[in-house]
Amino acid sequence: MPDLKDLLQDMRARDASDLHLRVGMSPIYRINGVLIRSDSPVMRTEEMEVLLGRVLTGAQREMFERNKEFDTALDYSDVGRYRVNVYRQRNDIAMVFRAIKSEVLDFAGLNLPPVLSELALRRRGLILVTGTAGSGKSTTLAAMIEHINHSENVNIVTIEDPIEFIYENNKSIIAQREVGNDTHSFPDALKHILRQDPNVILIGEIRDVETMTVALNAADSGHLVLSTLHTIDAAQTVSRVISFFPLDQQQYVRLLFSGTLQAIISMRLLPRADSKGRIPAVEVLVGTGTVRDCLLEPEKSQLIPQLIEDGVTEYGMQSFDQSLLQLYQRGMITLDVARKFSTSPTDFELKVAGVVGASDRSMRFFDQQGDTKEEPPQESGPQEPSEGT
Fold this sequence. Notes:
Elements: H1 4-13, E1 18-22, E2 28-31, E3 34-37, H2 45-55, H3 58-67, E4 69-76, E5 80-89, E6 92-100, H4 115-119, E7 125-130, H5 137-151, E8 155-160, E9 173-178, H6 186-192, E10 200-203, H7 209-220, E11 224-229, H8 234-243, H9 250-260, E12 261-271, E13 278-286, H10 289-296, H11 304-310, H12 312-315, H13 320-329, H14 335-341, H15 345-352, H16 363-367
């Protein structure tokens, strides 16, 4: 019978991000994005049943049997904290454990763009962190919350499923609410959240039109709202937000979205060339006046990628290709990796070769980065929300 703590300790020792347990196969680890099979014996049905009893409480077990899947978190003082998903496949129990770092790193430690430190301190509006599963969205949000926590005297309320990173009050006070334990659902929690006097609201994930509606309205009423979406870039994120709503509401949603958007931060994790592990390539769209105009008019949405590339020096924006080129020039990723993840491999190779057209003039900013780099000017944001908002 495998011991759960032994499996998790082995996971930590391997520096794996995920552990997969299924009946009929040996434990499998995801290390630097690659699935690695262990040489342990295959898991049996009765062993998975026993492990399930060690992962879920009695009430959680009832919910799992009813819904056939369940999300929770485990916290062991000696082996760390984990996000756990339990599900069924071919009528057998299966589990995935995601390791959660005990320490929330800062933006520099995570190799995130410096502009995120300014965006996190905006007084109101909506910030969306996007990417595929396992792209670093939760870690980036945690860095933003911790930056606020150490910089501002505000009330932060989070709604998570499950709670991943644990925060300690610093300058801010933080209430962390977990779906299933502290509230029945995201919609239930969001119905009452504005009565909890928040300045900053973290929604673990926007999954439906109800959650998106509350997020937009909260951002519009003077709160800073941070959340995630499973979209690959800024342009797709804009389309996804609008498509949550029926056609007869979409123009109003465009008006609300354009008036509240502070930033879209899109993530992709790439294998490093200079050391073990992975490093993020990050696209950043900042909600400038010109960007808001494009959000209002559907036919102008196609201009967003160009606005991102042109907004490097003035606003701290960057496209994925600009981020990739910067990482490649610093020796952090290989040319093959950069080419594979680029928007257009052919155009990217031209940039690497130094063929810079008029639309790529902002790339010179990255070539000149160093200790003398000036910070992008901050937009003048709205004032502090009034009491009772």
